[in-house]
Amino acid sequence: MSFRAGTIVAYFYLEAQRDQLFLMPVNMRDWLQEGHLAWFVIDVVAQLDTAALHARHPNDGVGRPAYDPDMMIALLLYAYANGLRSCRRIEACCRTDAAYRVICGGLVPDHSTIARFVVDHQDAVHGLFVSGLRLCAAAGLVDLSVVALDGTKLAADAALDANRSAEWIADQVTALLEATASSQDAQDATCQGLLVDPDAVGGLSGPGGRLGRLLAAQAVIEAQDAEAAAALAAKTEAAMAHAAAGRKVRGRKPSEPHAALARAQADHAAALARADAKQAERAAKAAAAEAAGVSLPGFEPGPDRKLQAAAAALVAATAAASAADPAKRQANVTDPDSRIMKTQQGWLQGYNAQAVADRNQIVLAYQVSQDANDVELYEPMVTTLTDTLDAAGIHDLVKQLLADAGYWSDANAAAPGPDRLIATLKDWKQRRAARDIGTTTGDPPADASALEAMEHRLRTPEGAAAYAQRSHTIEPVFANHKENKGHRRFRRRGIDAARSEWGLMNLTHNLAKLYEHHNTHNIPAPSRA
């Protein structure tokens, strides 16, 4: 024996015996220890409602046999649980990783098969999520005493610099159609009159083809133009209604030239209505004085300065609107459904992924939106939460819902649904305001506005303690997705694909919580047939 730094070391090494036969047990059940995540996923899939996955494969005996959908979804769930979403890497693991080989029983689905399975069954993911939520509820993990709502921005499979103007897109569409027509002429000459659909050449017109994506981006810009025109018309109508009553529109004047012109028109109409009202009032007084045989006291009024100022502002706004360039709207030609989103790290091309979680960090509902602002998503998410709980057979009522300042509005404060605490300021501003203003007790004053009533509730000890649960209820869910699993962007394009992928992420998250619960409480897994 030799001694080295006080350690006894043997004279031989443990060498790799690569020629040894039966290096692994013959029975796959001996490859992984009991309680391994792979066995848990297999057991859970056996309890999920996978009927929608089997519906695509009728047992008519025609065609090549398909891989068992239960095996495929177990493979995906295990891969997602380990932060793996690449179909090629999943295929590689099916060849080399013991856990993946156990799940597949030694089969090796190729990456194209895995990718097609994800695409073909994207609509079935929500049903699987509901089924998984039902399992979590049966295990006692669903707690509706306090739930939290929040959103996180996830990047799309598209770059920021792939946003193009309507003019650029129109030029590309024209060039592609001309190239397609030329290709058709060549094929017609070669095939002696064989008809070829110009939209089918090169797969250009499909949803994933270049022409299809360009046309979708063009439709996005047209929809944005129509939406902006409708919003401007609605604001103009409301402003003119105020003006007809002689009331000036309150609030900051818009900077966009055409919106500013509409405001100037309303302000001029309001000033004109007030001037006419004053003239009518003076004329009535003059008629009454004449009938009484007395003269009307005071001087004859001069020009109305407010009316003159409004007229001058209208002239200037008209000139500015005439000289203004058309609105430069853009759409992403790689993923037209995605939108430019603002994050703390800067701008990204992506989606707003929403989720509702309970105290156990079980995701109760999810959604993916193109709206970068959370305020319009409060009511839709409450509706989604109610529908998802009902579908899962969870009929208890949510006692309290927490949301940050991104969801604050008077309408959301008064909307139907559970009792809620919605911050009116960012969290650090909320804490500073509580220190500066101090705490309060009791119910809000009877004459308090919605904002004042919510601020009062948040400054009570009970309200502050309840709202303090928000961050460690929902934010760890997003941290798990992004930091632990590395899910910072969607792998597929289109909002429907992103919604399906987000549902699969949250289903895997819930099953990981269920797995942890089973291990913590030594709950035996269901026996495998």
Topology of helices and strands:
Layout: E1 2-4, E2 7-9, H1 37-47, H2 51-54, H3 69-81, H4 87-96, H5 98-104, H6 111-120, H7 125-138, E3 147-155, E4 163-165, H8 166-191, H9 210-244, H10 257-292, H11 305-323, E5 330-332, E6 339-343, E7 346-358, E8 363-369, H12 378-391, E9 400-403, H13 410-414, E10 419-422, H14 427-437, H15 450-458, H16 461-467, H17 471-484, H18 495-520
Parallel strand pairs: 3-9, 9-10
Antiparallel strand pairs: 1-2, 3-7, 4-5, 6-7, 7-8
Task: Note the main attributes of this structure.
alpha+beta; 3 domains; two-stranded antiparallel ribbon
Task: Write a short abstract of this structure.
The chain has 529 residues and is an alpha+beta fold. The protein is built from 18 helices and ten strands.
Cα gyration radius (Å): 33 Å
Our count of helices gives 18
Question: Which regions are unreliable across 5 or more consecutive residues at pLDDT < 50?
Answer: 190-207
Task: Indicate the mean pLDDT.
Answer: 84
Q: What would you note in describing this structure?
A:
By secondary structure, the chain is α+β, with helices and mostly antiparallel strands. It has 3 domains: 21-120, no CATH class; 142-157 and 337-519; 165-290 and 301-331, no CATH class. Helices cover 51% and strands 10% of the residues. It has 18 helices and 10 strands. The strands form 3 sheets. Strands 3, 6, 7, 8, 9 and 10 form a 6-stranded mixed sheet that branches. It has a two-stranded antiparallel sheet with strand order 1-2. A two-stranded antiparallel ribbon has the order 4-5. A hairpin with a 2-residue loop joins β6 (339-343) and β7 (346-358). The longest helix is centred in the middle third of the chain and has 36 residues, at 257-292.
